[in-house]
Design goal:
The structure is a homohexamer. By secondary structure, chain A is mainly alpha-helical. The first copy, chain A, contains six helices and no strands. Chain A has helices spanning 21-39, 43-71, 74-79, 83-99, 103-122, 124-137.
Chain lengths: 140, 140, 140, 140, 140, 140
């Protein structure tokens, strides 16, 4: 059993490399930075933490937008009727995680991305991407 | 006769400056660059046109995402039930306009942004932003 | 009643889309962020405010440079003999607004951009851009 | 059984999220874009392909630099005595893949990143990151 | 006799590091890329050349704006009455060099930057920066 | 006797413009920003200082990577057997200088870049670049 693999829509070229992992990686950073911010009382560290969390959360938003509008098709949106709502909440939550230094906001963001990932891997298109990645990895 | 209202969500800080004009400005460029690409047979010009269209279309996508997830609220999405679909189609169309050198793709994108703008200006929140802008312009 | 004309020089391609509104939108954010910084005593919020103000003010500088050197011609600079000075002061003031958390610095910046806008709209070239925009808006 | 999982050094903050997958994802895009470039005779598509390949290869270089100088320690470099050479060749190869439209250059790049990945996953530090990721994934 | 040294305004923080060399380095690239474009008949190389020239010329514009509005003071602009005009022509010429694949446009740009450099090194402020740099270089 | 001249690898195009000065300029800023941070007790100034230092140090890392993998060849790396180690330490130190507000970290970074510069100017390739630059400067 495996899944995270790789792939991610970079380029609007149909390069065929898509994966929810990109958004999740950034969201993990957002959460962990918030944790480290809470654990530190060093002014320099805390200032840097907020700055870097901002950048990571912006990356989350970008990756999610790419998945929503480039990977998922009109047909997917019919099949998974909560897809639009899920993306709105996830992108919105990335904004919340920017504003907050509470790791729980990052954790909630990760949960939403996992829900998106579950749908992604149910689609034939997603599995095809996974197949490609796995082939290149030599792991399938 | 007047011109230039303004506002646009820049920053996830609730700076209170939002406006569909940002996305539309970029979309206008996308369309006009495609037109100029078609009208030119100069290799240098055409290469630059494609490159710059790519950047402008990416900006459209970004501005639309900000409007959707930062300006519009869960309540707005209930009130205007086509909002999610409209945004998906607009962001998706920005990707189409990247791939194409046909000005019609940019024109279709502009039409979708105008539909979003119509909803924006119907909201009290949008009018408040407009009111602010107008006050600063001295034009209302 | 309506709003939003548009245009802005994006691309050194003569795409024909120029407008002082771009700089003004960013300057409005600069001013409002400074206000919100003053009104807040939350460490996270204040740190984010300074970071985002920095980015917005940098955008102002960029948009002004584009207007000065790409939209305005040598002839315009002869006709409006204070143009160079106005741009120097505006771009310099954007730097001041970076350094300061006083909304008055953003307000002064907005005033300078409005002076530039007044000249912009006096030029035939500016009106032509406005005309284009209006045509696309269906408002002229 | 293995999985790419996730993690990647974003931020010089010791956020603790590192993974060779980031570089590999971009390298996959580089290779596939080159393939699609070869398969197309459409001028617009080919121009876009080269532009996007450039960006993706630059991302590869960045991710590799982060792994080399931020994740791997002086001790790792002693233990794995070919590490510096491997990174030089991989980063250099990313430059070669920029210059070329031959998918084989991207494929060679992927091979080098896989060699780096093999070392990464041998380190206790890498396994720790993997452990974290796996825990969050619920897959270990 | 020496001069190039270093320093450059990066940051609106008065970090005290300014130098016309930054703009000149980019302008040199612009000129040389145009030369290489002319000497090549390889499609991939030529496409990349135009793309990279675009980025380099944009950097020139940025560095010149910083020198003009951040390094040079209102007093300098009175003392060197052609300063504003020189900057307008240089920034404008950077735009011309974007549009063109003729190395002569890059050469003209370099000439204008050299004129700016001559003024820079006449100012006490510029010499002070040079002094710092030289001290760090161990060459004065 | 002089040396700084200019040149710097921008573009993976073999534009032939390389120089260690680029990295050093940024490192100078990093050191001076840390100094100014220490000398200030103004909250706004200090927050901006940390943010700008972050960006400058990131630029150092980028310029060093370009020198290492694009300018220096496999042959250079054999001839100067400490080259890889020097680059690892310099890039790693740039990360340290990000994390710290101690000017000594920036100073150490500058020292490492100077060591790289010494090697650069010993190579025929580096001298050739210097020769080019000097020719354009009219100083050799």
């Amino acid at each position: 059993m495996r899944h995270v693999t790789i792939a991610h829509a970079h380029c609007d070229l149909y390069c065929g490399v898509y994966d929810p992992a990109q958004a999740k990686i950034e969201a993990l950073s957002v959460m962990k930075i918030a944790q480290k911010y809470q654990d530190s009382d060093d002014e320099v560290f805390r200032a840097r933490a907020l700055q870097l969390k901002e950048e990571r959360a912006e990356e989350v938003k970008h990756h999610l937008m790419v998945l929503w509008a480039d990977f998922f098709t009109a047909e997917h949106r019919q099949e998974f009727s909560n897809l639009d709502d899920l993306f709105w909440r996830a992108i919105h939550q990335a904004g919340e995680a920017k504003k907050s230094a509470d790791p729980a906001d990052g954790q909630e963001l990760i949960g939403l991305i996992d829900e998106i990932g579950d749908i992604f891997w149910q689609t034939e298109k997603g599995q095809g991407h996974g197949g490609l990645s796995a082939q290149l990895d030599g792991t399938r």
